[in-house]
Amino acid sequence: MQKIFVYIENNVDKSCTLHDLAKALKYNESYLSRFFFGSVGVAYSDYVRNIKINYACYLLQNTNTDIYHVSTKCGYATQSSFNRSFKQVVGCKPGEYRGRMKNTDTQNNKTDTP
After folding, report:
1. Are 25 and 4 spatial neighbours (Cβ–Cβ below 8 Å)?
2. pTM across the whole model
3. Number of CB atoms found within 10 A of residue 90's CB
4. Which of 29, 58, 71, 89 is the most buried (most CB within 10 A)?
5. Under a CB-based contact definition with an 8 Å cutoff, are residues 10 and 46 in contact?
6. CB hemisphere CA count around 106 (13 angstroms)
7. Which domains, ranges and CATH numbers included, belong to the chain?
């Protein structure tokens, strides 16, 4: 399992498909799919999508990188597929998420003055 997690971490900025993983580790793709699901309890593609979107959330909160470049840094070929995946996982569009997080940070950093 460690090799799989390292592969995902090292390839989060690429497509990182099950086919690519199977080829890199020299395993049968369907075997690897069953093995991953049996070990982790979630499909490989869903796991990778969640890792990518978590990374995107980090970038949106902690950098000023525009959304297009966030999507490419997370391995998405198009911004529309990134937006769709982001909304499925997080429940809002990336720009809305960034705005909410900035508002939350602003409210958390306010000091009460008498």
Report:
1. yes
2. 0.86
3. 17
4. 71
5. no
6. 6
7. 2-95 (1.10.10.60)
